[in-house]
Design a protein that fits this description.
It is built from twelve helices and 14 strands. By secondary structure, it is an alpha+beta fold. The longest helix has 19 residues.
């Protein structure tokens, strides 16, 4: 199967919206009532305060009841459909309207999350309004109280991409996902998991209980998403199963890695992608390299045939990484690399060799590759990419992204004359000494 996209169809939500080390768990279809500021009077608050003032001035109870009814009708009319995304540190609401902003609620800023009927209200009039609230007895409705939230605007809609909205706000959600509303227990479990993450986010990062509670939550999440063994073919036996992070530039997603006797499976623990499980035959794995991720030697990069993007996996420990490599190296078919034959085919066509880097990387002796480059069988780009990958750099990790030498100095001319000395950098000086002013300060 092909590697899945980071975007789920045409969704605006993706892993780039998450914080570092944050994990996306699940989502559900909801109807959201837009937040009302508790400190700044909104349309509903204005009507409510006007009704209260009217009662204090001697207005009739009928007038106050009509005002309360108009407030409830206005709240219902302001509902917006969308998806609610539960993450380890945030709660996202992605509206169906693509021009509307995405709302991000940091769980550390959430003060309350429960059903409306579980709330405690002060004052007789508020209790009376709760009795007449049509959502008070609705088991599919819950409310979230947050001190500050962030609006994430789509491109070309607003002057700036983000806007923080301060002030106590209340967001009301009604779950409309058929798979969830079919059982009231599912909604209770969803609220329980949400409140559990809220409690974890309130703990300080130095608190040892924070990591323990988060690990317990992750273990429970993994158990709720077992590997679908029904996709295995006859005779395909699982050999090893590990939890890891699949890493792309600027983001990572928690996955389950399963190696069988014939395939490598990667299962995403969420629905971010068209397929939750992707697989490759073990014969497609051309070579494997140990990698460092976040200064820890716990990752591995798998190069596949057919010039597919390499798969970068970061594990929790070096031992887990090595156990996967031990199984893979024992199951992979031996590959044969014939650089001379490939170079001869390209030379017959009059081209400098542009090789499949996954095949080139199988050559264990770097001197052989260097000789081919000196003889003109390899282009400069192919040779530089080969050196970068063998040195531990990867296009999947921005902290160890491949580097290229800086040799050109003329960036203003319309055409570049490589025979002119001024067009090329003076390689006898380091980069910091190329500018005459900087060189004078160093001297």
């Amino acid at each position: 199967m092909e590697v899945v996209s980071l975007r789920h169809h045409a969704e605006r939500f993706n892993l780039l919206l998450l914080r570092d080390n944050e994990q996306y768990f699940e989502d559900c279809r909801v109807q959201c009532w837009l937040p009302r500021s508790a400190t700044q009077a909104g349309p509903g608050d204005s009507a409510s305060s006007a009704g209260t003032a009217g009662s204090e001035d001697g207005a009739s109870e009928t007038t106050a009841a009509c005002a309360a009814e108009s407030v409830r009708a206005e709240r219902v009319s302001m509902s917006v459909g969308g998806e609610l995304k539960l993450c380890s540190e945030s709660l996202f609401f992605v509206p169906d309207d693509r021009e509307a902003p995405i709302l991000r609620l940091a769980l550390s800023d959430v003060s309350f999350c429960d059903r409306p009927c579980g709330m405690s209200y002060k004052g007789d009039r508020q209790r009376e309004e709760r009795r007449s609230d049509p959502f008070a007895s609705d088991p599919t409705v819950f409310e979230v109280h947050v001190g500050v939230f962030t609006e994430i605007f789509p491109p070309k809609v607003a002057e700036r991409s983000f806007r923080a909205v301060a002030g106590d706000a209340v967001l009301r959600f009604r779950v409309t996902d058929a798979s969830v509303t079919a059982d009231e227990v599912d909604i209770l479990n969803f609220l329980y998991r949400l409140n559990e993450l809220i409690d974890i986010s309130c703990l300080h990062t130095t608190n040892p209980n924070k990591e323990k509670k988060l690990n317990r939550f992750l273990d429970a999440h993994q158990r709720r998403h077992p590997f679908p063994t029904n996709i295995l073919s006859d005779g395909d036996t699982p050999m090893v199963e590990l939890m890891a992070w699949r890493v792309w530039p600027m983001c990572a997603n928690a996955v389950r890695v399963v190696v069988t006797s014939r395939f490598l499976y990667i299962q995403a623990l969420n629905n971010l992608g068209e397929n939750s499980v992707v697989s490759w035959p073990l014969d497609d794995i051309v070579c494997i390299f140990r990698r460092a991720y976040r200064l820890r030697s716990t990752a591995a990069e798998l190069f596949l045939a057919s010039k597919r993007r390499p798969v970068f996996l970061a594990f929790h420990s070096e031992g887990e990484r090595d156990s996967l490599l031990y199984v893979l190296e024992g199951r992979m078919m031996p590959k044969i690399t014939d650089i001379d034959a490939a170079a001869a085919r390209w030379e017959q066509r009059g081209y400098i060799m542009r090789v499949d880097h996954a095949v080139l990387l199988q050559e264990p002796d770097m001197r052989v590759v260097t000789d081919r480059w000196r003889e003109g069988h390899l282009s400069n780009l192919d040779y530089l990419l080969y050196l970068n990958i063998r040195a531990g750099r990867s296009f999947n990790d921005l902290s160890r992204y491949p580097v290229m030498p800086w040799t050109v100095m003329d960036f203003t001319s319309e055409s570049l004359d490589l025979s002119a000395p001024a067009a090329l950098r003076d390689l006898s000086r380091p980069i910091g000494a190329l500018d005459p002013g900087c060189l004078a300060q160093l001297r």
